[in-house]
Amino acid sequence: MGGKKLDNTSSNGNGTNADNNNSNNGAVGANSNNFNSNPNTTTLKITVKPPPATIHQSPVINLDRGDPSVFEPYWKKNGGKCTITISGHESLSYFSDPHSVCWYMEPELQDAIRRVHLIVGNARTEGYHVVVGTGSTILFQAALYALSSSSAVVAQPMKVVCAAPYYSVRNSNTVQFCYCPSSFDLV
Length: 187
Fold this sequence. Notes:
The chain is of the alpha/beta class. The protein has helices at residues 72-78, 107-120, 136-147, 150-155, 169-178; strands spanning 5-7, 26-31, 43-46, 60-62, 159-160, 185-186.
């Protein structure tokens, strides 16, 4: 961290830091009033200034929810290596595969994902569904919604497996999108 001081203050719930000795020369400081008024939310404000060519628009990382835009500099630099061309006649419908749990996913993408996992050997895909999305919260919601029905979930709580660290919205999203009782099990 280049000799920078870490400031690990925490919020006392009224929008001020519990440690009044908070100074602006710290590299990292925790503050709960950067994004919302939830006193249980902690955000990490980074004040270290990298060279102008690599600086990101926002020096704040919200630890309450994910934001993939933090990877924008990487994709701007390497995006040309991952270019995909889609012909005009392809993907005309939102229903790429109406028989799949993830009906909006192109069958070729599903085949490629299964092939990569088979080659790498890090996941079994046979007998499992492939669900895609633009972030972990979206994937979590999509998988739960697609694989559960309101009548089955209400009959007994659904087991939700989520390894730490996970975003604080997991519990509320599980209840909202899967019609789960509020006392669902978080394994």
